[in-house]
Amino acid sequence: MKKILSIVALAAFPAAALLAQKQAPPEPLPAKGFQVPAPKKLTLPNGLGVTLVPYGTVPKVTVRLSVRSGHIDETADQVWLSDLMGDYLTQGTATRTATQIAEAAARMGGSLDVSVGADRTEIGGDVLSEFASEMVQLIADVVRNPKFPEPELTRLKADRGRQLAIARTQPRPIATEKFVAVLYPNHPYGRLFPTPEKLQSYTLEQVRAFHAANFGAARSHLYVVGRFDEKALEAAIRSAFGDWKKGSDPVSNVPKPVSDRAVYIIDRPKAVQSTVILGMPVPPPSSPDWIQLQVTNTLLGGFFSSRITANIREAKGYTYSPASTVSTRNHDAYWAEIADVTTAVTGPSLKEIFFEIDRLQKEAPPDKELQGIKNYMAGTFVLQNSSRPGILGQLAFVDLQGLPDDYLNRFVERVNAVTPADVQQQAQKALTDDKATIVIAGDRSVIEEQVKPYGPIK
Amino acid sequence: MKSLTVALLSGAAALLAPGGGLASPAPPETAAGSFSVPVEYRKLGNGLKVVLSKDDSSPKAVVAVYYNIGFRIEPKDRTGFAHLFEHMMFQGSQNLGKMEFIRLVQSNGGVLNGSTRFDFTNYFEIVPSNALETALWAEADRMKGLQINEENLKNQQEVVKNEVKVNVLNRAYGGFPWLDLPQYANTNWFNSHNFYGDLKDLDAATLDDVKKFFSTFYAPNNAVLVVVGDFNSKQVGAWIDKYFAGIPAAKLAPKPDISEPRQEKEKRASKPDALATRPALAVGYHAPKRNTPEYYAMGLLDQVLVQGKDSRLYQALVQKSGLTGDVEGGINSGLGHMFNIDGPTLWDVSLYYDKDKSSDQILKVLDEEIAKVQTTPVPKEELDRAMVKIRSNIYDGIEGFFGFGRADLLASFALFDDDPQAINRMEENFRKVTPELMQKTAKEYLRPENRTILLIEPKAEEKKTDAKPAEKSGS
Fold first, then answer.
1. On the CB side of B151, how many CA atoms lie within 13 Å of its CA?
2. A284 and A232 in a common domain
3. Are the beta carbons of A8 and B146 separated by less than 8 Å?
4. At a CB cut-off of 8 Å and minimum separation 6, what does B361 contact?
5. pTM for the whole thing?
6. ipTM, 2 decimals?
7. Quick one: A54 and A118 in the same domain?
8. A371 neighbourhood in chain B, CB within 8 Å
9. Residue B348: helix, strand or coil by DSSP?
10. Which of A408, A406, A87, A43 shows the shortest CA–CA distance to A222?
């Protein structure tokens, strides 16, 4: 062990001799082929889409109904009405109490969860394989026959009110609230939180009406991924959903996001960090630029080896958890770098983020760096398609965004076709500096002077 | 047992959005429909424990190295050092300079991370199976020794201080309950210090500390290497011999006494939170010792009391009384699950509530439910349900996070019990628990005297009327 320690001590010296002694890592073997598990698709006469994917070795199955409804269906006076309705689904049906629903799901080795998002409300769970059909029936019961028991309304609203109050104490949610409000004015995507008063004003009639207007077979898709008896399952699906009302078609309300170079400060006196969101609208997943944009994002800030992370974390130590992301909604997307940085270096952090964007706009990335990005994306693509929720999420993304059936099978091939010039061009076209909206939740008295050079302060 | 899939406190940041076997691999599925994990276990001459588990459901492999050094036993004048050191393991080794380890893994299509827990520090890579040898070589390289300088240390001190800020200091309810509760509940310093670290202690760390820590704890005879995934056992065995067998063993220091005395008096603590707007409450009970019959009984009680919406506490506190919207908890719930901890741990329950309710109201409901499991055997139907939840949870653990969940369980059983085959006996051990044992366990471990109550006092003002940002910023 002594010898090893002496090497640590020597490390302070820039010794060329040591570098020369370095061993090269063993080269990877040729990559094995990977096929995305093949889905079986069918559509019931009432319009319900069904996707079944036999997958995996452990005897479990994920069953999830995805309804094309969510915040997108809320008016400015209904923010979180969809969430309240979602909470209500598991509070009882014509034949089951809330407790019976919870116990039924638990007996299958899972739980029945409802999550409401911008474009979709998802109802389902992950259960032991032998209960796949029973889970389908339980999901059908809660979405088709919810009882909306009146006595639960006060409790459910109090719970949502508490969640709202707690979310508003945290820097990321309040920064995100401002960021989406700037990008999506007068659109549901721009309304992250209701006011507490508005939330408490919702009535049972509104909840019922929201469900009646937005839930039905034509707007829904059932995904089943895992191990299951296909014949029995298909019969159960037809029996549970075959006579569900068709309902209305999904609402298409694609926003026209706006963004102008400006800095929005949300004051958090004495905050030891500034929570920064810096981003702009970018082309949606259905755009021909999409894959190139994904590669560009990954290289710039999308993973640990990316340029922005290497800069502001590993070189400068300004932050622990920086990351850039392309956040998608239905036929819409924005790019953003998000980082919680030490208050004293808020301005310098913006400087470095813009430096990395500008550098990519000026110079195409070296081949070797780009090849590493492609390899990373090919490898993580395998991982994304190697779990039940992962596979389900990928298929649901393709469906929502209206992507071609071969999107997943051709993804890696298309990533590999991206050139250094493509990446530079995407940085120029999509990540335009003059469109960057900057939101900072932090101590205004300390950071205002620091961030002034980066745009008009609002 | 909260969830067997681990929530990671990341060292290298969250990165996805994540020969000579003694036992013959078991078939993946038995006729009864239960699932068996193939396990091959051996020790190298230098003491390194090696566990292999094949899973060729997709072309990937997990390499995980667990060192037998948790933050519990870090140096007394260096709180947070075990975790800071974890970061240093990404800063450079003999053949891989700064950022090179991470780039090597990622540019070959893999993800990686590290984390520090009560009883271990782990490092893992999930790679396409064709890059398995590369990942093994890289882990061996840093097991041989680090090559880092003052600048690397300074950089990671800043990164770790930012980690503490983002997870604890710059947010409401920071550290609740996972970082706070053990500090109030435990009396032995090893279990009760601030293991994320005082910022002062983090700043005080030197390169000398790093060297000393490495030579004390980072040796093959203090570690386990697990490989899960799509591989050829013979080939992987040969690679492991080639890269790891030559690393010298170290003389290990005796482990300090980490035991906790039996708690004889209930403790109550209150923590003002300048950023919080609603109160929160956590209750922690010292749990039974690992692998005892009572430990498994506690695991079943956990299912009955707090896991899932069918659980008694959820039903009583949420569904029936509306005192809160959710109840969380479990054994070692804050930083793992009941199987990846060795020393003293807590079974806890935590929730957020409103100012118009009192903590006593909540505790009264909790006490009523605890009294029921102490005085009345859990009915068969409910016990059956708890067992189904456990079986399902074990499957999740075995396959969770792309095979890392399996690696985590195998590493824990190898590191703490020298028995990775125990992964196939988890369900059986729960099945041995009788309703009588559950009652007895509840009487001893869910005594009020065995618990610590932590209240978060909200000190921030909740704005009654919020601005409507969407409308305001509309053009």
1. 11
2. no
3. yes
4. B323
5. 0.93
6. 0.92
7. yes
8. 107
9. strand
10. A43
Q: Which two tokens stand for residue A1?
A: 């062990």
Asked if A273's CB is within 8 angstroms of B162's CB, the reply is yes
Residue A315, classified by CB atoms within 10 Å of its CB into exposed (0-12), middle (13-18) or buried (19+), is middle
Comparing A6-10, A32-36, A365-369, B100-104, which segment has the lowest mean pLDDT?
A: A6-10
The two beta strands, B451-458 and B267-273, are: parallel
Name residue B267's beta-bridge partners.
B452
Q: Which residues of A touch B107 (CB under 8 A)?
A: 305, 371-373, 375-376
Task: Give contacts of B104 with chain A, Cβ < 8 Å.
Answer: 25
Q: Given 3.50.40.10, 1.10.10.60, 3.40.50.150, 3.30.830.10, which CATH number is that of B40-244?
A: 3.30.830.10
A235 and A307 inside one domain: no
Shortest distance, CA A36 to any CA of chain B (angstroms): 10
d(CA A314, CA A298): 17
- Say whether both A202 and A335 belong to one domain: no
> Domain check: are A307 and A443 in the same one?
yes
Q: Is A325 exposed, middle or buried (0-12, 13-18, 19+ CB in 10 A)?
A: middle
Domain ranges of chain B: 40-244, 267-458
Would you give the distance in Å from CA B13 to the centre of its chain?
16
**Residue A48 above 50 pLDDT?**
yes
- Is residue B276 within 8 Å of residue B289, measured between CB atoms? no
- Average pLDDT of the residues in B412-441: 97
Q: Do A185 and B473 touch (CB under 8 A)?
A: yes
Flag whether residue A109 sits within 8 Å of chain B, measured between CB atoms. Answer: yes
> B267-458: which CATH architecture?
2-Layer Sandwich (3.30)
CA B246 to chain centre: 30
Domain boundary among A180, A207, A241: A241
Question: Is A298 a domain residue?
Answer: yes
Please tell me the total count of domains within chain A.
2
Q: What domain range is A347 assigned to?
A: 262-454
Average pLDDT over residues A8-13: 30
Q: Give the chain A residue whose CA is nearest to the CA of B108.
A: A375
Looking at the structure, tell me whether residues A422 and A274 fall in a common domain.
yes
